[in-house]
Amino acid sequence: MRRLQLNNGLFIPTIGLGTYKSHSNEVKEAVKYAIDIGYRHIDTAWYYKNEKEVGDAICDKLKEGVVKREELFIVTKLWNNFHETKNVVPKLRESLESLKLDYVDLFLIHWPFAFKEDADLLPSDSTSYSDVDYLQTWQGMEECVKLGLAKSIGLSNFNEEQITRILQNCKIKPVVNQVEVNPNFNQKGLIQFCKERDIVVTGFCPLGRSTQSIDTPDCPLSTILDPKVKEIAEKYGKTSAQVVLRYLVTLGISVIPKSVTKSRILENFQIFDFDLGPEDIHYLDSCNRNQRVSAMTPYKDHKYYPFIIEN
Ligand SMILES: NC(=O)c1ccc[n+]([C@@H]2O[C@H](COP(=O)([O-])OP(=O)(O)OC[C@H]3O[C@@H](n4cnc5c(N)ncnc54)[C@H](OP(=O)(O)O)[C@@H]3O)[C@@H](O)[C@H]2O)c1
User: Fold this and answer.
1) Sequence-separated (6 or more) residues with CB below 8 Å from residue 86
2) Mutate to test the pocket of ligand 1, among 21, 259, 269, 293 (most ligand atoms within 8 A of CB)
3) Is 207 a pocket residue for ligand 1 (Cβ < 6 Å)?
4) Which residue is closest in CA terms to ligand 1's atom 17?
5) What is the pLDDT along the chain (311 residues), one digit of tens a residue?
6) Which atom of ligand 1 is closest in space to residue 77's alpha carbon?
7) How far apart are CA 267 and CA 261, in angstroms?
8) Domains of the chain (ranges plus CATH)?
């Protein structure tokens, strides 16, 4: 099990299972299978509406004795409607109840920008925006650690300026910033920035949402569909997804590929039995086009929208 050390001394397993859009009828089996074959890091979120099924899977595996709680690294996230300090602990308690856990290993602020509490989860107009400052949210996150409800706390989709503000005002440092990372959008600048501040980057959308990327306008075509990457993969007797994931972990990050397909869950975990040559890394580096899959552009006029600066 490869792991990265966090700034509080704890460890995050390098490969995790993503669960966004893993539907409630399939995610339990996916998580159970993942734990059976060695995954210890599971990424979910209040927003994904599947914490209950993720929790059912974890419960089964704990009961069967396949794994002990302390061997697992469970991540969930606070959604944008609940950024007020007073809402953070209750929302984590709600997630914990669904997950049937006493604590999560990592609790993240899903996005730096907030919506009003009674607004839609993805509101369609700016009257639903809230300008609660994420520094207020962070105070609630710190309370979660003090109460023992989260071992570690972190950020997601925060830019360099926002991370700096948190670092200048926090009592407990964020351990992770979870952001999109794939060869089309390799985030080398932000990864370096985080490394210098002892923050681990977790890369989401590592496979560039391969299927969706084919028929979604504005979504860059996933690198796992690139014929040159397929050629590289054939050279090593691996798949394109394995080559891409192997490349991403060489950037010093953890990655959370999502799948509900057993063969792919297995495939995505088997990436440490080969090394990419310098010419292959060079090719994957050259795929960077600074195009995001997950840009949340409808909210680009929000005061705390993160992607208005380069990193
Ligand atoms: N913090 C955030 O704002 C944020 C945003 C987005 C995602 N995330 C997290 O990051 C995780 C991963 O990102 P993502 O789900 O958006 O995208 P992704 O992992 O890049 O892509 C998932 C897609 O790739 C397919 N796939 C998986 N393994 C494959 C393989 N070996 N070969 C070919 N196709 C494969 C999956 O299909 P099947 O499932 O059908 O196998 C699914 O359609 C999420 O699930 C979520 O946990 C976080």
Assistant:
1) 140
2) 259
3) yes
4) 205
5) 899 999 999 999 999 999 999 998 999 999 999 999 999 999 999 999 999 999 999 999 999 999 999 999 999 999 999 999 999 999 999 999 999 999 999 999 999 999 999 999 999 999 999 999 999 999 999 999 999 999 999 999 999 999 999 999 999 999 999 999 999 999 999 999 999 999 999 999 999 987 777 777 777 889 999 999 999 999 999 999 999 999 999 999 999 999 999 999 999 999 999 999 999 999 999 999 988 999 999 999 999 999 998 88
6) 1
7) 10
8) 11-299 (3.20.20.100)
Distance of CA 256 to CAs 15, 120, 211, 302, Å? 6, 27, 17, 28
Looking from the CA of residue 239, the nearest atom of ligand 1 is: 31
Ligand 1 atom 48: residue of nearest CA: 204
Does 129 participate in catalysis according to the annotation? no
Q: Is the CB of 175 under 6 A from ligand 1?
A: no
∠ CA 156-157-161, nearest 5°, is 110
Q: Assess contact for 261 and 26: CB atoms under 8 A.
A: no
Among 33, 39, 47, 48, the active-site one is 48
The secondary element (H helix, E strand) that includes residue 203 is strand 200-204
Beta-bridge mates of residue 201: 177
- Give 47 Cα–ligand 1 centroid separation in angstroms: 15
At position 72, the amino acid (one-letter code) is: L
Q: Which two tokens stand for residue 144?
A: 């979660």
pTM above threshold 0.85: yes
- The residue among 5, 44, 19 whose CA lies nearest residue 175 is 5
| CA gap 98, 47 in Å, rounded | 12
